[in-house]
Amino acid sequence: MTAAATSEAVAAEPWVTLFNRPAFHALNLTGSARRLDARVHAADGRLVGALTGVVSDGVFVSGHSAPYGGVDLARDRETPAHVAALVDGALARLRDEGVRTARVRLPPACLGASDGLVEFTLLNRGFRVERCELNQHIDLTGLVDAGAYRAALRSPARRALRPLLADPAFRFEEATTPAAWDRAYATLAANRAARGRRLSLSRDYVERARRALGGAVTVHELLRDEDAVAAALVYRVRPGCALVVAWGDAGHGLEGSPMNLLAHRVVEQALAEGVRILDLGVSNEPEPGPSGGLEANGGLVQFKQSVLARTHPRLTLVKELA
């Protein structure tokens, strides 16, 4: 699918989360796995929404190869009765398709007005919590511009940001050439390597996602003179909602971290694009700790809080249907 075709498809159904769209699933389907889109209509024929995912070996996953998927509603605000009918109808469709296990990776409930209602309904239809992660987001509602955002920061964050904003050598640019995308990816990969980790997305995958999903996938670089010092990979996941898939600094040799400036520029860009919720992703360690459960990454939580992030659980729910 070309970028133009993708843009037309997204415009036709903007209520469908990026990770539930056919173009995204096409990037990740392997073997006998197949897409399943369980759409449910109200009694008057109006489309309520859908539970979309991938079926493989009798297991349905909404949020396949993605941070999350979940229930999509055609209207941002929906009634409890319609949400219940959607969930019940979707589960009936999954059973008819021979699905034994349904796994739903929910978005954080801050993204949509009815996401909390969806979570409530699934839990009361017998889904159980399989995984609970710590998600953080910045609510940009009511902030008219970057000046209002800076005014809302606490004084330590404003002090850290002030000299970075005053330095004319810094530039924030969207990557528009293959060389710029390569450089931005290298910055993110080096950031992870410095922490003994690997970037979860390969360069080839990021390129295929960019081509398949068009303007929904962007990467911005923070440059100082001609040197890349930080980068941010951002997905537009819903109208008014963007997800920072990866960000970080690396290889700059600066006396202080440029991350406060990167965060400010990412927020500034989001405000200019009409983003209401800037999702910064999870801030927990990827694997269980000594307690047997996931542990918060204290440094990451603190940094995101310093740039006005709020915390919210991000749940993976599972239900046996057989």
Automatic annotation (TrEMBL):
Domain BioF2-like acetyltransferase: 154-286
InterPro entries according to UniProt: Acyl_CoA_acyltransferase, BioF2-like_GNAT_dom
Xref: SUPFAM superfamilies: Acyl-CoA N-acyltransferases (Nat) (SSF55729)
Pfam families in the cross-refs: Acetyltransf_6
Gene3D superfamilies recorded: 3.40.630.30
Protein name (Swiss-Prot/TrEMBL): GNAT family N-acetyltransferase
Organism: Paraconexibacter antarcticus
